[in-house]
């Protein structure tokens, strides 16, 4: 920690499901439907083991998860397509809502002159369905999914850095804040060099997991982010340590396809 305020945050990159959008178990339900399509028996030990992996890797691009679980590329693609279709059906059925205070926080951040980008590990079609269901198509300047930045999702830094390059909103990574609900969100933000990597407790992972993955701050929800940035930017405030946290790179070939 230092005794001087950090640079003004000009670019804010926010996760969607679990951070700005209430998930309510939709990922697990959609995975169950997709796994059944691939012959995984509901209630079996195989199903339970695969579901545990899905929970542990919340925030990662979904095609990468299916590649890890099913190995074969054709099976992974079929599983991912089934997952996206099942998730879209749940969204269309009204099972999608904003995290309380999320829209207001985004509007406040923008009102303060900050550029806000929404990112996700979902495919573009699912991301667009969520945005349409919430009436958020025009809420932010840019939305990103892994395919928009060459196919690598979290825990890689590509979407955060892609947001910087596409918007030109910040002069460097020291003017970026990232917020998310998963360890992979934290790893992605730290690997990108963001000044603030805030974990929120409205989604998949708890404060311990978020902290171990490199969160610089823990918030009850995204609603607290504008006040946090305001405090950190105040003269005399202590800025978070932006040195990279220990974050071993993904080791498997399957993960390289994120």
Largest sheet: 6 strands, parallel
Mean pLDDT: 86
Distance between the termini: 33 Å
- The poorly predicted ranges are 242-258
The chain-level structural class is: alpha/beta
The count of DSSP E runs of length 2 or more, i.e. the number of strands, is 8
In percent terms, what proportion of residues is strand? 5-15%
Query: Based on CA inertia axes, which overall geometry fits?
Result: globular
Number of helices: 10
Radius of gyration: 18 Å
Order of helices and strands: EEHHHHEHEHEHEHEHEH
Commentary on this structure:
The protein contains ten helices and eight strands. The protein is α/β, with parallel strands linked by helices. The strands form two sheets. It has a six-stranded parallel β-sheet with strand order 5-4-1-6-7-8. A two-stranded antiparallel ribbon has the order 2-3. The chain is globular, with a radius of gyration of 18 Å. About 50% of the residues are buried. The model is unreliable at about 240-258 (pLDDT under 50).
Which features would summarize this protein structure in a list?
258 residues; alpha/beta; two-stranded antiparallel ribbon; 10 helices
Fold topology:
Layout: E1 11-15, E2 21-22, H1 26-37, H2 45-56, H3 62-70, H4 73-92, E3 97-98, H5 102-111, E4 115-119, H6 124-134, E5 142-144, H7 158-167, E6 176-180, H8 183-192, E7 196-200, H9 207-212, E8 217-219, H10 225-233
Parallel strand pairs: 1-4, 1-6, 4-5, 6-7, 7-8
Antiparallel strand pairs: 2-3
Helix pairs in contact: 1-2, 1-4, 3-4, 4-6
């Amino acid at each position: 920690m230092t005794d001087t305020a950090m640079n003004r945050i000009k670019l804010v990159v926010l996760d969607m499901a679990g951070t700005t959008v209430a998930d309510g178990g939709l990922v697990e339900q959609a995975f169950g439907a997709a796994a059944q399509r691939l012959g995984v028996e509901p209630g079996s030990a195989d199903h339970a083991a695969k579901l545990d992996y899905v929970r542990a890797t919340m925030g990662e691009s979904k095609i990468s998860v299916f590649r890890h679980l099913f190995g074969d590329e054709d099976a992974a693609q079929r599983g991912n397509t089934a997952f996206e279709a099942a998730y879209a059906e749940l969204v269309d059925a009204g099972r999608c809502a904003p995290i309380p205070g999320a829209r207001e926080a985004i509007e406040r951040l923008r009102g303060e002159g900050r550029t806000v980008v929404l990112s996700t590990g979902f495919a573009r079609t699912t991301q667009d369905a969520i945005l349409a269901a919430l009436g958020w198509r025009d809420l932010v300047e840019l939305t990103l999914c892994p395919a928009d930045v060459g196919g690598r999702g979290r825990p890689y830094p590509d979407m955060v850095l892609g947001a910087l390059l596409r918007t030109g909103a910040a002069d460097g990574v020291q003017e970026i804040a990232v917020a998310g609900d998963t360890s992979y969100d934290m790893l992605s933000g730290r690997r990108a060099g963001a000044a603030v990597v805030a974990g929120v407790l409205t989604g998949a992972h708890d404060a311990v997991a978020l902290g171990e993955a490199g969160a610089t701050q823990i918030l009850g929800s995204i609603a607290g982010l504008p006040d946090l940035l305001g405090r950190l930017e105040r003269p005399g405030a202590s800025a978070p340590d932006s040195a990279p946290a220990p974050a071993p790179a993904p080791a498997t070939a399957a993960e390289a396809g994120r």
